[in-house]
Each structure stands twice: as structure tokens, then as C-alpha cells.
Amino acid sequence: MSLQVRRVVTGHDVRGHAVIAIDETTTNVITPRPGISASVIWTTEGFPADNSSVDDGGARKVSTAHANGTVFRVIEFMPGAARRMHRTDSVDYAIVIAGEIDMQLDDGHEVHLKAGDVLVQRGTIHNWVNRGDRPCIMAFVLIDAKPVTVGGRTLHAEG
């Protein structure tokens, strides 16, 4: 995989002046399944987030979402990448940075997204399908949310 993301993070020095705390190409790229590369850029815990911490929010080990927090992740989907229907207990803001991709719902409906398009994913079962001939790169911000409740039944994260 070729995913390379430059991550620039600001912070404060001992006098309270703004500084560049991190400026790097991410090294925490993982391949969770064939044809997919992902890098966690930043995470937070609690609301509101604490901007005083000097900890590297990108180094925190998280699952898909993060309970009582947020996850900012960049993912590269190669053409024909392995598919996975899943649901998260989060509100997901997804931005297509490059390429094109189809977002597929569990009832079979699909929406085609291209560079510049945005999607708000609200706890629905979905899948990402790259039918093109180029990689698709997307940025995701996942914000912890209550699980979906329909007809008195709670639909928890899965997959």
C-alpha cells in the first residue's frame, strides 16, 4: 500500500505560544484487510476535548470508533479491496479526498461518491466498494454516539 499522510499538529510551548508539535509522515499505517490501508491521525477522549494535553492523540490504540471520544482517520481503498458490511456507534463525517467509491447500504442501495463529496454516516450498516481503476482516499471523523434505537430495539455496532 502506498498511503502516505503528512500530519501537522499544533500545540503550545511553556509560555503558552503556539508551536508546531508534530510535523511528520504518519508511520502508523495498518492494513486491516486486503486492499485497505488506514492511518489514525488524531483521537480525543471526553467532551469537550482537552487541548492542554501533550500526549500524541494519533498514538492512542483505538478500534473503529472510540467510546466517549473521536477518531480522525485517513483510509485508502484500492480497486477491488475486500468488502465488509459494518455499523459503528458513531456519527461519521466522511470526505472523499481522491478517487471515487460507492457506499453500499444493507438494503442494497448505493451512492457513488467522488473527490470533494462528503457523507454523514449515522450508525447505519454500510460497506465501501471501489469499482474503479484508481485508489480512493477518504478522511473520516468518527464521533461517539448513542446506538441507534428502532422500534424499541437497540442496534449496536457490528462487523
Provide an overview of this structure:
By secondary structure, the chain is mostly beta strands. The protein has one domain: Jelly Rolls. The chain is built from no helices and 12 strands. The protein has strands spanning about 5-10, 20-25, 35-45, 70-75, 90-100, 100-105, 110-115, 120, 125-130, 135-145, 150, 155. The chain has a 5-stranded antiparallel β-sheet with strand order 3-4-10-5-8, with no helix packed on it. It has a 3-stranded antiparallel β-sheet with strand order 7-6-9, with no helix packed on it. The chain is globular. It starts with 5 loop residues before the first strand and ends with a strand.
Query: What is the CATH level 1 assignment?
Result: Mainly Beta
CATH topology: Jelly Rolls
Number of discrete domains: 1
Order of helices and strands: EEEEEEEEEEEE
Distance between the termini: 23 Å
Total of DSSP H or I helical runs spanning 4+ residues: 0
What order do the strands of the largest sheet run in, or round the barrel if closed? Answer: 3-4-10-5-8
Quick recap of the structure?
By secondary structure, the chain is mainly β.
